[in-house]
Amino acid sequence: MTEYRIEFTEVSRRKTTVQRRETKPFLLRTNKNNKDKLSMIKIGDKIQSIYLLVIIGILVMGTGCAELKKLRQENAELLQRYRAEEIPAPVITAANKVCVGCHRNHAPALVKEWERSRHAQHGIGCVDCHKANPGEIDAWQHIGTWVSALVTPKDCARCHPQEYEEFSRSHHASAGEILASLDNVLAEKVAGLPGNIADAVNGCWQCHGSMLKFKRDFQGNILRTGKEGKPVLDPDSWPNSGMGRLNPDGSKGSCHACHSRHAFEAKLSRSPENCGKCHMGPDHPQIEIYNESKHGIAFSANRNRMTLDKEGDWVLGKDYSAAPTCATCHIGSYMTAQGVYKGNNHDVGERISWTLRPVVSTKINLVIYEDGYKEDYPEKKPLPKIGEEVQTLEKVYENENLVNKTVPRRVAKIITWQERREKMKGACLNCHNNTYVDNFYKQFDDLVILYNEKFAKPAQALMNELISDGILNSRAPFEHEVQWVFWELWHHEGRRARHGASMMGPDYTHWHGMYEVSKNYYMKFLPAVIKAAEQKSQEMKLKYEKKIDAMFTQDEHLWKKGLSPEEVEELRKTYQERYSQ
């Protein structure tokens, strides 16, 4: 016996069934474009009566439509309840009512993002963040309320004072100081035009931050627009959410760099991709290294287990365990091996024991002063004593210029590089034992030392000597080929190798790192040294040829004279056995 059905399948899985006996069924589909309903009619060739078809039609059109309408209504009610539970209605205070009502028409997506934020759930709205005081340089009176388009870390500090203090003393906050570095020379001068620094504006400054400035008239007064007198921001400096942005109120940074407005989602700021906006590319490819590491692979496979959107503190070893992210290791909370809670910190450099940024890496101690100001001290620089007064050099933003200020400060605390490393190890020990972690650091340290001793220090010494001999002009950092090659040797390839080792990315450590360092050191840098010397004089050429020839007699460079007969034979046999070549 074969059973045939007319069946309606809905979200609620209700169905109506008619049974017939038959031997040769055929299939008829109705409402093909209606995803909510599938009507299957199986009728045999012995069904002769037209009345049965009419009855079936009535069942399909009558029962089906009524059923569908009812179920759609039920589903709509369920969906509405789900949405209400998932996203609580925003709390719109009297102060923000006008803002929300107007911007719902002028910037509807922006308002929708705010409505789904935790700020909105607690009644924190437009005025709470954008309010300003009369007389502030960026303020204007908008529909009766003094506001500013700019929201700076000082504004966020009204509700988040601890985070503001931690961030303000961090390496992130000082990212804007690149404006006085060689990186900025490349963007503004080498790749720019007089009066056109678009490369710096669209490139470097979008991560590092700009100096926020205003358009001014010939008398130096800020240009204002409209009846309300809104100040006109210099388009070269705004929009900008760079990490070390220099703000008119004297604060450094932009919380928006990590906590994107206007939803300010925790899952966004905790996601590695968020850091990858800036920490990527040939000179600092942290996101690429992370993605190829075991940590990155584990995160990618287990993202749904990471509780990225958890409200409040996010603790490794308690709230999640699948993988570490950038935030986990550098600023996140964690449980120690003894079950002790360690809180988060918005100072991203607190747990870093090496600096991998300069030509030659060094371990770094941390000096903290009584006012909270922090300074990294290279390992070989003598440390001050607790209570000692030190003349510190600080870059501050005044009158739309970055200026150096000498500030006397008294030492409150010193954290050695070993202590900084122990803080980082605390996160590692959530998943690994002491032997594993200690051995990792041994591998990492050895790679940095290898880079320093074999390539960075000798290359830097040669560059310094070329300057002393008058071959290079220190005021023209990219005049000769050797200066470009040296720049990429440490700033690109050297950093890739060091960062690769620090985050367990083997491809970036070797092929994108030490392989490139080695190749360019021997094949480009050393020949460029001799070429630059020859442009000065034959005497200088001979001097540097002798210096480099003497260097090649050292054990680490003897490979250039060739392998031993035994090594050559071993390589030949291996290729013969593996590839028949």
Which descriptors would you attach to this protein?
single chain; about 575 residues; alpha+beta; 4 domains; five-stranded antiparallel β-sheet; three-stranded antiparallel β-sheet; about 15% strand; globular; disordered N terminus
Largest sheet: 5 strands, antiparallel
Q: What coarse outline follows from CA principal-axis ratios?
A: globular
Structural domains: how many = 4
Radius of gyration: 33 Å
Binned strand content: 5-15%
Stretches with pLDDT under 50, minimum 5 residues: 1-49
CA distance, first residue to last residue: 70 Å
Query: In terms of structural class, how would the helical and strand content be classed?
Result: alpha+beta
* pLDDT averaged residue by residue: 89
Helix content: 40-55%
Count of runs of 4 or more consecutive helical residues: 20
What is the strand tally?
A: 17
Could you give the topology of this structure?
Blueprint: E1 3-4, E2 6-8, E3 20-21, E4 25-30, E5 39-44, H1 50-86, H2 94-106, H3 108-115, H4 118-121, H5 126-130, E6 140-142, E7 145-147, H6 153-156, H7 161-168, H8 182-190, H9 198-208, E8 224-225, E9 230-231, H10 266-270, H11 272-276, H12 286-292, H13 294-301, E10 315-316, H14 326-330, E11 333-335, E12 341-342, E13 354-355, E14 362-369, E15 374-378, E16 389-398, E17 401-415, H15 417-428, H16 434-468, H17 481-502, H18 506-536, H19 538-551, H20 565-579
Parallel strand pairs: 10-11
Antiparallel strand pairs: 1-3, 2-5, 4-5, 6-7, 8-9, 11-12, 13-14, 14-15, 14-17, 16-17
Helix pairs in contact: 2-3, 8-9, 12-13, 16-17, 16-18, 17-18, 18-19
